[in-house]
Amino acid sequence: MRPGGVTSPGTTLENKTGAWRNFRPVHDNMKCKRCCEPVAIGRLERFVADWELEKGLRIPEKAPPTGKRVAVVGSGPAGLTVAAELAKRGHDVTIFETLHKPGGVLVYGIPEFRLPKRIVEAEVEYVKQLGVKIVTDVVIGKTLTVDDLLEEYDAVFLGTGAGLPSFLGIPGENLSGIYSANEFLIRINLMKAYAFPEYDTPIKVGKRVAVIGGGNVAMDAARCALRLGAEEVYIVYRRSEEEMPARQEEIERAKEEGIKFLTLTQPIRFIGEERVEQMECIRMRLGEPDESGRRRPVPIEGSNFTMPVDQVIIAIGQKPNPLVMRTTKGLVVDKRRGIIIADSYGRTSKDRVFAGGDVTTGAATVIAAMGAGKRAAEAIDRILRGD
Ligand SMILES: Cc1cc2nc3c(=O)[nH]c(=O)nc-3n(C[C@H](O)[C@H](O)[C@H](O)COP(=O)(O)OP(=O)(O)OC[C@H]3O[C@@H](n4cnc5c(N)ncnc54)[C@H](O)[C@@H]3O)c2cc1C
């Protein structure tokens, strides 16, 4: 997978990396549009990827076959990158993917209007043209274990992502009409539920939809709900807009499209017979900063109110997928952060097993997952060559 190939979303150098510290403007004027503007890295990446796509993919020369075999678990940006890099170095690589389509979050999570699927498909095609085999509909940890793979392959890379949604754990959360953002987005992006009954998976979008959370996933879910015909969509977030983890650009787009923001508000109960009908919330104020450095939300006693809703989408975070971690002996893991790696090259506690991407960091970014894949490929290649 080529760096910069898929991160269309507009991350700016200023707000998402530490690199801005090395950037020295000619003068330091926030109003200056000439030399003091942050660099829109995401847009530059998108431009390069689109340009390359338009000109046709160039398959680089591959090293002669080494006779070594590598299994990659997961076909998100981490898995696709490690697979492509190892194939270029002459190794025989097979990717195992649970879903019926490769691409990870790029196909099942990020909506078409932010990342056109033809870009992801072209990336997958490029990886295949390098000789990588992709086996879909295989759940590693169920169909086969990592130990099974180690019997057939010289090394295994785990790039299983962070697809396990977190929930609020409040009364009424099991009512019909309440989805995790993951399920909601998978139904729309992967299963094409918007085209039901032409496609098998249905989706019922409410008239008044509340999306709980303030990250990019929440913005994506809210904007999808609006596109599928919801009349009113609310982002409900327990801190203020300033603390929202979503990129400013995503917040602005959501607002432009008419999504309403209910900040300093926390749901405490969902009410309904079978389907959710109302949501009881409490107002919050900001207290002292917590361990994340953001000011802690504190409930305001007696400020409870209810609002009518007929659909709720919970987008308060995802944790690493637990299946491979649970079924692989000798893998040191942390329940919250995922697989523990010894260094930036992705070495795990288990011999010949490497890991990278969201499964080692928790939900992060496409570019970070691709970086992890690149570094792991370098380490795996060296080990396979006995270096
Ligand atoms: C809605 C949404 C919007 C986002 N927007 C952005 C954005 O704008 N910019 C950005 O940089 N990042 C964004 N992210 C985050 C980014 O997509 C992830 O950080 C990135 O995809 C992580 O890559 P990965 O390869 O580690 O995992 P994933 O992309 O999650 O891929 C993991 C793959 O492993 C497969 N898998 C899991 N378990 C198994 C198993 N047991 N056996 C076989 N296969 C398995 C999964 O099906 C999946 O295909 C977003 C995430 C979401 C959910």
UniProtKB/TrEMBL annotation:
EC number: 1.4.1.13
Record key words, sorted: Oxidoreductase
Pfam family, one: Pyr_redox_2
Protein name per the record: Glutamate synthase (NADPH)
Gene Ontology MF term list: glutamate synthase (NADPH) activity
Enzyme class name: oxidoreductase
Coiled coil spans: none
InterPro entries listed in its UniProt record: FAD/NAD-bd_sf, FAD/NAD-binding_dom, SudA-like
Originating species: Archaeoglobus veneficus (strain DSM 11195 / SNP6)
NCBIfam families with a match to the protein in the record: gltA
Residue ranges annotated for the FAD/NAD(P)-binding domain, each copy included: 69-373
